[in-house]
Amino acid sequence: APAVGVLTFLLPDLSWEWQFLLFGLLSIATALYWWRRQRTATRPSDQPHLNLRGQELIGKTFVVYEAIVDGRGKIKVADGVWMARGPDTAIGSRVRGVGQQGAILLVEAAE
C-alpha cells in the first residue's frame, strides 16, 4: 500500500484500475518474497529443548519429594516440585528422568 501511495503521488494521473492492479501485483510479489525468505531462513536451534522443560529434565537425577506410590509421586526439580510417574520409591531416594507425558516426568531408580 505505501508503494502504491508513493506511485500515486509521483504519477497523479494514475487511474484507480492501475492502482488496484499494482497493489495486487506488489502484494503477491511481497508475499512470495517473504515466504521464500522465511523458508530458507529457518535454521536448527542451538537450544532444541528451549521452552520444553520436560525434555530438558530427561537424563537428569532428582530427589523424591513425595513418595512414589502406585506409580505416582512428586520429585524436587530446582526450586519447584514436579509430578512423577515410575516404580514405587521412598522419599529422599534418587530417581532419573527417562521420559515425559504432558506435565508428568517419567522416572526410574537412579543407580
Task: Give the structure's gist in a few sentences.
The chain has helices at residues 2-10, 16-41, 53-57, and strands at residues 61-69, 72-77, 80-85, 94-101, 104-109. The protein has 111 residues and is α+β, with helices and mostly antiparallel strands.
Note down, in words, how this protein is organized.
The chain is of the alpha+beta class and 111 residues long. It has two domains: 2-41, no CATH class; 53-109, Nucleic acid-binding proteins (OB fold (Dihydrolipoamide Acetyltransferase, E2P), Beta Barrel). 36% of the residues lie in helices and 32% in strands. A five-stranded mixed barrel has the order 1-2-3-5-4. The longest helix has 26 residues, at 16-41. The radius of gyration is 28 Å and the shape is rod-shaped.
How would you sum up the major sheet? Answer: 5 strands, mixed, barrel
**Intertermini distance:** 65 Å
What order do the strands of the largest sheet run in, or round the barrel if closed? 1-2-3-5-4
The number of domains = 2
The unreliable regions are none
By CATH, the superfamily of the largest domain comes out as Nucleic acid-binding proteins
Radius of gyration from the alpha-carbon trace, in angstroms: 28 Å
Mean pLDDT: 88
**CATH architecture annotation of the largest domain:** Beta Barrel
Structural class: alpha+beta
Which range best describes the helical content: under 10%, 10-25%, 25-40%, 40-55%, 55-70% or over 70%?
25-40%
Residue fraction in strands: 25-35%
Q: Sum up the overall morphology in one term.
A: rod-shaped
Q: Number of helical segments?
A: 3
**How many strands appear in the DSSP assignment?**
5
* Element string (H = helix, E = strand): HHHEEEEE
Question: Which CATH class of the largest domain applies here?
Answer: Mainly Beta
CATH topology of the largest domain: OB fold (Dihydrolipoamide Acetyltransferase, E2P)
